[in-house]
Amino acid sequence: MISAEDLIALVRNYNPKTNADRLARAYEFGEKMHEGQFRHSGEPYFSHPVAVAAILTEQRLDDATIITALLHDTIEDTKANYGQVAEMFGDEVAMLVDGVTKLTNLQLSSRETKQAENFRKLFMAMSKDLRVILVKLADRLHNMRTIKAMRPEKQVTKARETMDIYAPLAGRMGMQWMREELEDLAFRVLNPEGRQSIIRRFITLQRETGDVIHRITGDMRRELEKAGIEAEVFGRAKKPYSIWRKMQEKDQGFSRLSDIYGFRIITHSEEDCYRTLGAIHQRWRAVPGRFKDYISQPKSNGYRSIHTTVSGRDGKRVEVQIRTRQMHDVAETGVAAHWSYRDGVRSHNPFAVDPAKWIAGLTEQFDNEEDHEDFLEAVKLEMYSDQVFCFTPKGDVVKLPRGATPIDFAYAIHTRIGHACVGAKVDGIRVPLWTRLKNGQSVDIITADGQTPQVTWLEIAVTGKARTSIRRALREVDRERFIKLGQELARAAFEHVGRKATDKALDTAARNLRLKNREELLARLGSAELTAHDVIEAIYPELAKDDGEAVPMRRAVIGLEPGQSFERATCCQPLPGERIVGITYRGKGVVVHAIDCERLSDYENQPERWVDLHWHSGRHQAVYGATLDMTIGNDAGVLGRICTLIGEKKANISNLEFVDRKPDFYRLLIDVELRDIEQLHSLMLSLEAESDVAAVERYRIKAETVAAAG
């Protein structure tokens, strides 16, 4: 355990004017309060608060935060109380300690409605003083570093909570180093085999190629010297979890993954950052689409840096970050830079954001949320997403989370623009509303009088603001229609489990789901904010687990008019479990499309033909066709093994067509009959794991192909 003298010395390193006596008194008080208490590892309990304080000294934080770290468990776990702490160390410290205590008692990993309520409390605590979260994050970091002393099941719970909540929160606050360490520590618990596999591959790679980092760092320094630029160059291998995530996202093995090394160049001025970029690009080939300029377009947490990826030695890609020293300080400590010290004085970093403004900007759109679930969803979307920067036709910048669509862009400008949106142009070209926006694109929203939000927009929108605005508008404009559709969904779901959707049953379900009344429940069911399974589970949990008889195909789709027939679109082959929409055809009934089908862009200007549809929530018959596009090795017995595996997954092969034959591989289209989208995913995962399967994906006919065929 670090002694009081050593801890004070750590603070003095960056703040010689620290109140050493006050720190010593806090250390002594904490040690006394925790006397006789021990951790799972057998160490004195007070070693934990001291370690948390030491972590915060690495971020060069003020005395009040360090003292809070030393005392953060006293009010909760000892006989000390708020008044005692306030009397000895002041109201500021007492309020911070009390805030950390309240956060510790929140069950953020709960799967119930309580999680949403507690997230709101978390943000209320953050808005009062962000240092509460800084202490809590350091507390979690030390607990994760010492997690081996906990019971295995407790380790998994804490690791999952860390991965889902605390690591993304640290990243959003700009403390990337802490996010990476928290993720890696959680990864060590949740997937030890995967982590060890990556470490073993790293060792093998180093044995084969030598010290790549040292060589590339030397090359970069020489190029900067030639250009007359003074700068520091650092290199490192990326963390195992970061590499694992890239492997999952890109669906690539370790050997095919290129950018596993990262390099950082710290310059003296902003001008030198751009000169450095020029020198790097002149020496190495830049990788298209991998350049981001966060200096001219900083992130909301103050982060500034230039990111580029280049092809280094042996064609290996390396990521390079270029920034000044002040930018680096903010990049390392994020929002915490507001309280940090450098060379004995409170840091006045021009790039550090005001924490109060940051948290206000993050939460202002949620102040009027009607319920906790909306708040939880919106906050998670906003807090845990990377950003893209797009431009209005006038050149104004709009910041959006990655994956955002023109719908999100429209609502980011103004709710009125969002409601009236009928289309969009990206870089001058008309695009569907579900198009994912990319950095640097110019977006022009097309509006029309009389347009109102569509229920399908909920599946397209990504931002909390857009989804909340759409929901509110739909509730007001289409409430009666949604209640009617909700009644039909509830009736079908209850009949499927042998019950009736009586007013009393629906009232009970609404009460258990914490909704105002059954009309609110039905409206949410009809607008796809609730599923029929949620309603059944609220009052008949034992029946919700029992699928009962399979839903016949004639009753599979809900939302059709009496006597109206339907057929599945051949272009996208929608499966039960996917979000769907219907397009009406005269004399043909309704054709059901998946919500992301490219063909839907043909009907964008014909909203009167769109029908809100849902799949029945029960278990479906295995009669729905889907096509797999597979590439397999041309070897004896391979096709037989693939067909056997498909049969083992309870899927029936209805057709098989070879589209390409080569000496070493075959490409073929296999039609299979399935129950739902979940069975398709399970089947594809099993096929991907087969060593003789080079590639497998769901085959869908492109829009232009359909048009040509029609």
Helix/strand class:
alpha+beta
- The end-to-end distance, rounded to whole angstroms, is 76 Å
Percent of residues in helices comes to 40-55%
What's the main sheet like?
Answer: 6 strands, mixed
InterPro entries: ACT-like_dom_sf, ACT_dom, Beta-grasp_dom_sf, HD/PDEase_dom, HD_domain, NT_sf, RelA/Spo_fam, RelA/SpoT_AH_RIS
Domain TGS: 382-447
Enzyme class: transferase
Function: In eubacteria ppGpp (guanosine 3'-diphosphate 5'-diphosphate) is a mediator of the stringent response that coordinates a variety of cellular activities in response to changes in nutritional abundance.
Could you characterize what this model shows?
- This protein has about 700 residues and is an alpha+beta fold.
- Helices cover about 45% and strands about 15% of the residues.
- It is built from 30 helices and 23 strands.
- Strands 1, 2, 3, 4, 5 and 6 form a six-stranded mixed β-sheet that branches.
- Strand 16 and strand 17 (about 590-595) form a beta hairpin.
- Helix 4 (about 65-70) crosses helix 7, helix 11 packs across helix 12 and helix 24 (about 505-510) crosses helix 25.
- The protein is globular and about 85 Å long.
- The relative contact order is 0.05.
- Its EC number is 2.7.6.5.
- This is GTP pyrophosphokinase rsh.
- It holds the Pfam family ACT_4.
- It catalyses: GTP + ATP = guanosine 3'-diphosphate 5'-triphosphate + AMP.
- It comes from Ruegeria sediminis.
